[in-house]
Amino acid sequence: MAFLFNSDAAxxxxxxxxxxxxxPDLQFFQAGEDVDPDKIRYLISWVTPDDIARYRNLEILxxxxxxxxxxxxASVPEHVKLVRMVEDNIIRMMQEYxxxxxxTLHREVIAYREHQxxxxxxxxxxxxxxxxxxxxxxxxxxxxxxxERLKPFQFPLTGWSRRRKEIEAVxxxxxxxxxxxxxxxxxxxxxxxxxxxxxxxxxxxxLFAHLPxxxxxxxxxxxxxxxxxxxxxxxxxxxxxxxxxxxxxxxxLPAGHPxxxxxxxxITPHIASVxxxxxxxxxxxxNIQRHRAGKKLIGLIDRTxxx
Length: 307
Ligand code: NDP
Hints:
seven-stranded parallel beta sheet; elongated; plasmid; Glyoxylate/hydroxypyruvate reductase A
């Protein structure tokens, strides 16, 4: 029985050490090493390996990232369980980033950066936090963790998900019927949805039109969820006041792209959360142990929903 690490060698070395301690009975291989494919029961990768069909006894395919949209699900055999990365650092870093983003948009940091370019010393009015409504598209693990960190700031908090939710001190909207009502009461919109057929292009002109005038966008989901031209139009028309984007399409954003130099846009290079090898290895080891004990896996993907 063996585990195959199909990603960068540096993180692989950290995994190897952790596996030697945590699962000493499991053989460990890194991509490129000579391995009998029939031995591989568990595999971790960023994308679906081209030769996945070789691993006929594969039981679990782990994603090294928090999403699985980059996998070609059709080429993963039905019996293989697909598991996303759910490790403490991803959660902690996303909490930091969302707080940073909301405060950046709330306290006009993007406008002040532009003022600084012109050596302009000018204060802008800021509403009280209780008057700035913050809404999450997606109320999953990361959104709920970020919400807990935002609560002390007193922003009215809401979120929208597929299924009905109850979260203390959060206005919960769900389903298509409540989508517009959710948007109409959101001043800072945070996208933390997984990329699926249903969420591709969801941040588009009609969505922006439903947001109140002066609303702002914090996008931390996936680049293809955003219609970038529609965003630029909504910003240029003055309907939206600003956007902070951690994800774009494509990544990296090409030189000369209008988003790079837009005065109302702040871009970070997909760094909201980064998988840390020590905690990631612990998560994978714990999950393999759960699997062996017949327990439910953490981060198991529902392949019919795509997340
Ligand atoms: P979860 O799977 O825990 O949560 C997803 C949420 O989205 C759920 O609330 C789900 O609703 C909701 N959702 C999905 N599809 C729909 C839909 N069609 N309509 C309404 N709601 C929908 O995911 P996480 O919170 O762990 O992560 C979210 C995403 O964040 C990841 O998939 C990834 O793309 C992105 N991410 C970005 C990072 C970055 O560095 N920028 C780092 C890590 C993740 P329901 O609860 O009803 O199922």
